[in-house]
Write a structure and sequence with these properties.
This protein has eight helices and seven strands, in the order βαβαβαβαβαβαααβ. Helix content is 43%, strand content 12%. The chain has a single domain (2-187, 226-250), classed as Rossmann fold (3-Layer(aba) Sandwich). Strands 3-2-1-4-5-6-7 form a seven-stranded parallel β-sheet, sandwiched between helices. It has 260 residues and is α/β, with parallel strands linked by helices. Strand 5 (133-138), helix 5 and strand 6 form a beta-alpha-beta unit.
Length: 260
């Protein structure tokens, strides 16, 4: 199951999992976005499922899980990919830190933290009963190196990384060492959603923001969604069966850059 699977990065994760033979359930707040990603999967890949799900609503998560279990019989992998930011929770020339509304901070923190916790609680019950399973949280390099202006998003993703380590130990010790929990921390990834921020028009070069970002990335380029999917495939595979509580940064060296 891939939450937020209607988006660019998680849609690519869903495609990659299906390409490896998995039956994939795409959960997304927008059923249309989920269906679009599902319809884009090659016909040769296993049957999939696109479900409307609000991962911050426990009843919605339970309904989606019930539908997924009815369709597939069980679940082996949960990718918690839902998340995001909002302008009203980000500092800007028009919005000072002192004036950010509490409700905006709360909304973004919930979106990037509880979006991993609530599905992990519900799907984790299934894993606890079967004594096996993999949870993979999509965090961000903002959790490792807080990004300027991005207060609530960075803090929410940092909470998700802390939760990843806690849950890895809890599930292994309390239920089964065959239940693994890890995270991927994507760097700056070029998607349709942020193309307008990073590039100058259709087919143009880098924007001023894009140039500043690349100055901090040793590999001197933006990442691609499929490169995040490749890291996910490793962490959910049997090749990573001795890996739990880990965070894999896929960032072109951004978090290793000393800045001097």
């Amino acid at each position: 199951m891939v939450t937020g699977g209607g988006g660019a990065i998680c849609g690519e994760i869903a495609r990659a999992l299906a390409g490896e033979g998995a039956s994939v359930a795409i959960w997304d707040l927008s059923p249309e976005a989920g269906r679009t990603k599902l319809d884009a999967l090659p016909a040769t890949q296993p049957p999939g499922l696109a479900l409307a799900c609000d991962v911050l609503d426990r009843d919605s998560v339970r309904r989606a899980l019930g539908q997924t279990l009815s369709a597939f019989g069980t679940v082996d992998i949960l990718v918690n990919g839902a998340g995001g930011s909002r302008a009203e929770a980000t500092t800007s020339p028009r919005l000072a830190f002192f004036d950010i509304p509490t409700e905006a901070l709360d909304g973004v923190l919930r979106l990037n933290f509880l979006s991993a916790v609530i599905p992990s609680q519900e799907v984790g019950r299934v894993f606890a009963e079967k004594k096996a399973g993999v949870i993979l949280n999509i965090a961000s390099v903002a959790a490792l190196r807080p990004l300027t202006r991005s207060i609530a998003y960075s803090s929410g993703k940092a909470a998700t990384l802390n939760f990843t380590a806690w849950l890895a130990v809890h599930m292994a010790r309390e239920y089964s060492p065959a239940i693994r929990v890890n995270a991927v921390a994507p760097g700056f990834i070029l998607t349709e959603q942020n193309r307008f921020l990073l590039l100058e028009g259709e087919g143009g070069g880098l924007s001023e923001r894009g140039k500043r970002i690349l100055e901090a990335v040793p590999m001197r380029r933006l990442g691609r969604p499929e490169e995040i999917a490749g890291a996910v495939l490793y962490l959910v595979s049997e090749q990573a069966r001795f890996v739990t509580g880990a965070v894999l940064a896929v960032d072109g060296g951004f978090t290793a850059e000393p800045g001097v």
